[in-house]
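User: Could you go from structure to sequence for me? I need the amino acid at each position, not a summary. C-alpha cells:
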C-alpha cells in the first residue's frame, strides 16, 4: 500500500505502474489538459501544472519512493518543481537518447555565459542611466539648471553647492568607478574563458565516451562475419530500439538528424577507400559543410525570430500598462457623482474627437516624427495568443540550437571511430558499413497517427508558430504587390 494515490489518480495509472507507463500516461494527460487545448476552461492551467508535478515526482525513483511512503508533502523537491535545464533535456529526447547524443548543455551553458558576461548588470545599469536621464530632463525643464547639465542633475546640484571642489570629488569618484568596472570586466573575462575551456574539455570527454558506446553498438555487426543474415539481425535490433526512441519528444527529428549524419559520414569514408574515391569523398565533404552552414544560418535566424517576437510581446505588455495607468488615474479622480460622470463623458467625447483628428494626421505625423502615438490596447485573448506564439518561437529557437549541438556531437563521434589510425583500416571500413545501416534505419523511421498524437506535445507549439509566420507572410504579399 502507498500513503497517497493522488498523483497516480491524476495520471490515471496504478501505484505499481512502470516508468514507461508513467511517461505514456503523462503525455496523454498533458495533451488532454493542456491550456491551449482548453481555452474555455479557467482551471485547465492549474490541472496541467498538477499533472506536471505528478510526473516529475513519479518519474524520479527517489521522489517516488518518498511519495509512496510519506505522501505528497514529503516528496516535493527542495529546489522546487521547475528546472530549466532538466526541462529542455526532457523536451529534446530526454534520457532515452543519452547513449547516442549525451546530455544537451545548450541551456545551462547559455545561462552561465550570460551570468559571467554580466548581461543582467548591464541591463540594470542601462535602465538606471535611462531613469537618471529622465530625472535630469525634468530638472532642466523646471529651469533650475542649464539644459546641458540636465542629465546630470545630482552632480549639478553638488557643483552649485560646493563649487569646483565638489567637481573634483565627483571626478575622483568617476575614476574610481571606472577602475572598478575595468577590474570587474577583467575578472568576468577570466572566469568566462575558464568556463569556455571547461565546456570544451567536457565536450571532448563526452564525445570520447559516446564513441566507446557507439563502437560497442557497432560491434554487434563488426565482430561477426558480417553476412547478410547478421546484417538483417543487426537491422532488426536497431529497428526495435528506434521504435521506442521515436516516441520521445522530438524523438523522430533526432533520429532523422542522426540518420542523415551517419549515412553521410559512412559514405564519405567508404568513398575515400575506393579507386578515385577521393574525388567522390571530397564532393560529399563539400556537401556536408554546405549543410552545416545552412543549419547554422537557420539557428541564427530562429534566435533572431524569437528575439523579435519577445520584443513584440514586451511592447504589447507596455501598451496595456499605459492604458492601465490611465484608467487608474481616472479612478483616482473619484468620479462618483452624476455631475462628475457627465463631465467625464464630455471629456471622453472631446478626447475621442481629438483622437479622430490625430488619426487623420497620422501619415504626416509619422513622416515628421513629432506626433506622439497612443499605444494600442490589447485584449486578454490577444495577449494569450501572443504568449502561445512566443512559446513556440522560443522552443523553435532552442530546438535549432539543440539540433546544431546534436549534429556537432554526432559528427565528432563519427570522426573519432572512423579516422582513428590506431584501428586497422579493415575494422574502420566495417564500422562505416555498420554506421550506414544505422543511418538507413533511423532515417526511415515514421510515426502512425496515433503515435504522433501521443508524442507531439511541444512539437505542436513549434509547428504552429512556424505556420503562423507563413500565414502572416502570405497575408502581406498581396499588399506589397498592389503597391508595385
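Assistant: Here is the amino acid at each position, in order:
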Amino acid at each position: 500500500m502507498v500513503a497517497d494515490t493522488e498523483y497516480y489518480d491524476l495520471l490515471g495509472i496504478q501505484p505499481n505502474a512502470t516508468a514507461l507507463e508513467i511517461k505514456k500516461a503523462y503525455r496523454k494527460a498533458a495533451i488532454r489538459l493542456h491550456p491551449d487545448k482548453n481555452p474555455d476552461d479557467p482551471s485547465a492551467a492549474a490541472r496541467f501544472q498538477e499533472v506536471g508535478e505528478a510526473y516529475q515526482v513519479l518519474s524520479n525513483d527517489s521522489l517516488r519512493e518518498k511519495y509512496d511512503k510519506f505522501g505528497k508533502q514529503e516528496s516535493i523537491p527542495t529546489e522546487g518543481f521547475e528546472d530549466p535545464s532538466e526541462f529542455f533535456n526532457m523536451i529534446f529526447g530526454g534520457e532515452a537518447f543519452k547513449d547516442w547524443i549525451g546530455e544537451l548543455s545548450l541551456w545551462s551553458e547559455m545561462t552561465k555565459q550570460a551570468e559571467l558576461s554580466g548581461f543582467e548588470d548591464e541591463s540594470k545599469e542601462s535602465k538606471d542611466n535611462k531613469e537618471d536621464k529622465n530625472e535630469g530632463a525634468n530638472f532642466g525643464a523646471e529651469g533650475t539648471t542649464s539644459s546641458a547639465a540636465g542629465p546630470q542633475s545630482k552632480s549639478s546640484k553638488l557643483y552649485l553647492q560646493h563649487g569646483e571642489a565638489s567637481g573634483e570629488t565627483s571626478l575622483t569618484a568617476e575614476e574610481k568607478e571606472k577602475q572598478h568596472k575595468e577590474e570587474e570586466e577583467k575578472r568576468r573575462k577570466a572566469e568566462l574563458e575558464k568556463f569556455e575551456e571547461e565546456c570544451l574539455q567536457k565536450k571532448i570527454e563526452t564525445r570520447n565516451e559516446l564513441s566507446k558506446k557507439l563502437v560497442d553498438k557497432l560491434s554487434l555487426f563488426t565482430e561477426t562475419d558480417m553476412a547478410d543474415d547478421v546484417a538483417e539481425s543487426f537491422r532488426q535490433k536497431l529497428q526495435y530500439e528506434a521504435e521506442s526512441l521515436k516516441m520521445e519528444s522530438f524523438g523522430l527529428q533526432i533520429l532523422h538528424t542522426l540518420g542523415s549524419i551517419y549515412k553521410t559520414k559512412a559514405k564519405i569514408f567508404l568513398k575515400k577507400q575506393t579507386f578515385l574515391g577521393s574525388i567522390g569523398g571530397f564532393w560529399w565533404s563539400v556537401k556536408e559543410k554546405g549543410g552545416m552552414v545552412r543549419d547554422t544560418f537557420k539557428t541564427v535566424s530562429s534566435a533572431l525570430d524569437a528575439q523579435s517576437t519577445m520584443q513584440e510581446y514586451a511592447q504589447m505588455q507596455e501598451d496595456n500598462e499605459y492604458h492601465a495607468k490611465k484608467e487608474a488615474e481616472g479612478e483616482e479622480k473619484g468620479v462618483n457623482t452624476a455631475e462628475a460622470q457627465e463631465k467625464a463623458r464630455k471629456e471622453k467625447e472631446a478626447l475621442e474627437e481629438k483622437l479622430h483628428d490625430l488619426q487623420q494626421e497620422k501619415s504626416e505625423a509619422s513622416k515628421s516624427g513629432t506626433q506622439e502615438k497612443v499605444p494600442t490596447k490589447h485584449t486578454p485573448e490577444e495577449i494569450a495568443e501572443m504568449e502561445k506564439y512566443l512559446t513556440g518561437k522560443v522552443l523553435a529557437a532552442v530546438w535549432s540550437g539543440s539540433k546544431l549541438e546534436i549534429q556537432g556531437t554526432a559528427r565528432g563521434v563519427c570522426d573519432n571511430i572512423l579516422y582513428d589510425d590506431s584501428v586497422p583500416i579493415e575494422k574502420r571500413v566495417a564500422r562505416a558499413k555498420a554506421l550506414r545501416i544505422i543511418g538507413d534505419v533511423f532515417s526511415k523511421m515514421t510515426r502512425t497517427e496515433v503515435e504522433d498524437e501521443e508524442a507531439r506535445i511541444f512539437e505542436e507549439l513549434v509547428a504552429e508558430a512556424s505556420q503562423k509566420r507563413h500565414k502572416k507572410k502570405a497575408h502581406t504579399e498581396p499588399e506589397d504587390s498592389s503597391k508595385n
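One structural detail worth keeping in mind: Residues 209-305+383-483 form one domain.
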